[in-house]
Write a structure and sequence with these properties.
424 residues; alpha/beta; Rossmann fold; 2 domains; seven-stranded parallel sheet; globular
């Protein structure tokens, strides 16, 4: 099937063709006809399946045809809520690309930056608003946004939205929407709390489901190093001595880990930067732009921060920490080898992560190529459950001891300075 078989109007088909999009993905093929017929849709689909186009294309078509009948001043007719700034920016870009020849205007609002540019765009009038929950409610409270005219509502990445604690914000936003609207609800997983939320938002929805991604692109070569935890940074430096590896997206499990990896790389004179939720939005955008421009060799990211990042012709992904969810591995390495380009995925596995590798290989139904020429091989065994509990207790004890010491030092120091001043 091709996009032209889905009854998509010519201005949008032209934009899709200009960007070399000819055949719809599974989620697009299933969802677009249902949305064009103005059904509410409950979609189970993960990032990377093409779901943005699945809702963006029919919404653009609705709005374009509506404006042909009534070319009144622009009001927010479509609202898309998404959990992260990066994903919001990506969705906004997609609407701009697909709607290039429609005249439909969109803007994106998110926190972490000054609101001036966002409110200026809103004053000029937009048809589509893409927003993160916090900034949206803030601008509603300030009177910059009204949702009374919304006819098309999308809640994207619903499960992640709830994981990030946005449930109350979502309820507030839904309460401000007109009851008569078309609603689209997308979530990678469907636990009970997500199903309950969908029932409050959707009316007689059509269900669209895409199986979780369980295979990796044939264009991606996968490599595995077994090593010890204490040797990971040395092994990483060894790998990066290969100057062919000129641009790397490296994944860390935690924000603190991302910062630590970045510090270690900078000590080795390797240009690197971290991107995660604790970084200011303008800082994250600047770092991403520098990486795309080739000014930064290694971009260290957490999984949440990396959502929405799309880098053309990225050749290398490194899993510094192996994800404990096998599907996450597939999504990570899928950021290389796009559009038929060749990609390489390198994973550094410490003993405690060996079981994760087994899960990943089971999911993708293949063995990851083991690198035998490894100067830092794995010599330790995974801890037993008892050893892990003891180690966790020891870490907690050291942490408490560390903070107790930090609290004491300033007191002694201040007392010393005060006593000296008194004598003087």
């Amino acid at each position: 099937m091709r996009f032209k078989d889905l009854e998509i109007i010519e201005p949008i088909l032209k934009a899709l063709k200009d960007n070399n999009y000819t055949e719809p993905t599974s989620i697009q093929e299933k969802a677009i006809p249902l949305i064009l017929k103005r059904n509410d849709v409950l979609g189970s689909a993960q990032t990377g399946t093409g779901k943005t186009a699945a809702f963006a294309v029919p919404i653009l078509q609705h709005l374009f045809l509506d404006r042909q009948l009534n070319n009144s001043p622009r009001k927010i007719k479509s609202l898309i809520i998404t959990p992260t700034r990066e994903l919001a920016i990506q969705i906004g870009t997609s609407f701009t690309v697909y709607g290039k020849f429609t005249g439909i205007k969109n803007t994106v609002v998110f926190g972490g930056v000054k609101q001036g540019a966002q409110t200026d765009a809103l004053r000029k009038g937009v048809d589509i608003l893409v927003a993160t929950p916090g900034r949206l409610l803030d601008l509603i409270d300030q009177g910059f946004i009204r949702l009374k005219a919304v006819e098309y509502f999308v809640l994207d990445e619903a499960d992640r939205m709830l994981d990030m604690g946005f449930i109350n914000d979502i309820r507030k936003i839904i309460a401000k929407l007109p009851s008569k609207r078309q609603s689209l609800f997308f979530s990678a997983t469907m636990p009970n709390n997500i199903v309950k939320l969908s029932k409050k938002i959707l009316k007689n929805p059509k269900k669209v489901e895409v199986s979780p991604v369980s295979s990796t692109a044939e264009t991606i070569r996968q490599y595995l190093y077994y090593t010890n935890r204490t040797h990971k940074k040395d092994l990483l430096h060894h790998i990066l001595q290969d100057q062919k590896i000129d641009q790397v997206l490296l994944f860390s499990r935690t924000k603190h880990g991302a910062d630590r990896i970045t510090r270690n790389l900078k000590k080795q004179k390797i240009k690197s930067a971290a991107i995660h939720g604790d970084k200011a939005q303008n800082q994250r955008q600047r770092v991403l732009a520098q990486f795309k421009a080739g000014e930064i060799r290694v971009l260290v990211a957490t999984d949440i921060a990396a959502r929405g990042i799309d880098i053309d012709k990225l050749k290398y992904v490194i899993n510094y920490d192996i994800p404990n969810i096998a599907e996450t591995y597939v999504h990570r390495i899928g950021r290389s080898g796009r559009a038929g380009e060749k990609g390489n995925a390198i994973s550094l596995c410490e003993p405690e992560e060996n079981a994760y590798i087994r899960d990943i290989e089971k999911l993708i139904n293949q063995k990851i190529e083991l690198v035998k020429e490894n100067p830092y091989p794995q010599t330790e065994k995974p801890m037993t459950e008892m050893e892990k509990k003891e180690w966790d207790k020891e870490k907690q004890r050291r942490k408490q001891e560390f903070f107790a010491t930090r609290k004491q030092k300033p007191i002694r120091s201040n007392s010393f300075r005060f006593s000296k001043q008194k004598k003087i």
